[in-house]
């Protein structure tokens, strides 16, 4: 059984889709920890309602990056976390945590990386940039997280067509629906390849 930590900042619809998808697909995995920088996030509420342990972790009270990283790391180790899934998490993962979980941190991005990623590319900004660039397709990307923002190896992508009357908001809604499908598929793919490596 793989232990998962899901990091969220917002509504947590991807978190909920992952939670349900694991059940529906009978994946050998369980979400054992929900980490959020926002105490009142929908994700935290959903986790509490489903008896998943939560950790509200903000960088602000910590004197330095080192102590903040150590608190995050000790929570992850205490829960024997195998994979970390970033699902609408808006904060940077500290370098020390990335180094401790090589190819074990996944993120979902609401565009077709490597385009439209990096600094400032979150929320409606992404969809606005895609539409302004005159693209006719966009989509969702699940990728590994490495030291470079939105640059880790791509695991899975799914595309959607952009219609002439699409707005950043309509495009974001369309993409969110496919995010819910592609994230669980990517997780399944990673779990089955890791399971084989481990001889499970
Ligand atoms: C999603 O579009 C995700 O790709 C982006 O933030 C949004 C989070 O939505 N990084 P939710 O909190 O999962 O509903």
Give a short synopsis of this structure:
This protein is of the alpha/beta class and 200 residues long. It has helices at residues 13-24, 42-49, 65-78, 95-100, 124-132, 168-197; strands at 2-8, 29-36, 53-56, 83-86, 105-109, 137-144, 154-161. Bound molecules: 5-O-phosphono-beta-D-ribofuranosylamine.
What descriptors fit this protein?
200 residues; alpha/beta; Rossmann fold; 7-stranded mixed β-sheet; binds 5-O-phosphono-beta-D-ribofuranosylamine
List the helices and strands and how they pair.
Layout: E1 2-8, H1 13-24, E2 29-36, H2 42-49, E3 53-56, H3 65-78, E4 83-86, H4 95-100, E5 105-109, H5 124-132, E6 137-144, E7 154-161, H6 168-197
Parallel strand pairs: 1-2, 1-4, 2-3, 4-5
Antiparallel strand pairs: 5-6, 6-7
The structure holds 5-O-phosphono-beta-D-ribofuranosylamine.
3D structure, described in words:
The chain is α/β, with parallel strands linked by helices. The protein has a domain of 100 residues: Rossmann fold. The protein contains six helices and seven strands; from the N terminus they run βαβαβαβαβαββα. It has a seven-stranded mixed β-sheet, covered by helices on one side. The longest helix has 30 residues. It is globular. The protein starts with a strand and ends with a helix. The model has no long low-confidence stretch (mean pLDDT 94).
Oligomer: single chain
Mean pLDDT: 94
Strand order of the largest sheet: 3-2-1-4-5-6-7
For CATH, the homologous superfamily of the domain at 2-101 is named as Formyl transferase, N-terminal domain
Number of helices: 6
The CATH topology of the domain at 2-101: Rossmann fold
Describe the global form: globular
Number of strands: 7
């Amino acid at each position: 059984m793989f232990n998962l930590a899901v990091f969220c900042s917002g509504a947590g619809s991807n978190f909920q889709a992952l939670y349900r998808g694991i059940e529906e697909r009978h994946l050998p995995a369980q979400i054992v920890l929900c980490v959020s920088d926002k105490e009142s996030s929908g994700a935290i509420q959903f986790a509490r309602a489903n008896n998943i342990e939560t950790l509200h972790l903000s960088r602000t009270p910590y004197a330095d990056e080192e102590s903040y990283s150590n608190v995050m790391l000790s929570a992850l180790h205490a829960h024997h976390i195998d994979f970390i899934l970033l699902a609408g998490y808006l904060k940077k993962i500290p370098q020390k945590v990335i180094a401790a979980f090589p190819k074990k941190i996944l993120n979902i991005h609401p565009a077709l990386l490597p385009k439209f990623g990096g600094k400032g590319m979150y929320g409606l900004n992404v969809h606005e940039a895609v539409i302004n660039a005159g693209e006719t397709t966009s989509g969702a990307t699940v990728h590994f997280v490495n030291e470079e923002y939105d640059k880790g190896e791509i695991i899975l992508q799914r595309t959607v067509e952009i219609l002439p009357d699409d707005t950043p908001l309509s495009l974001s809604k369309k993409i969110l629906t496919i995010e819910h499908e592609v994230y669980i598929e990517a997780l399944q793919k990673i779990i089955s390849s890791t399971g084989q490596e481990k001889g499970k």
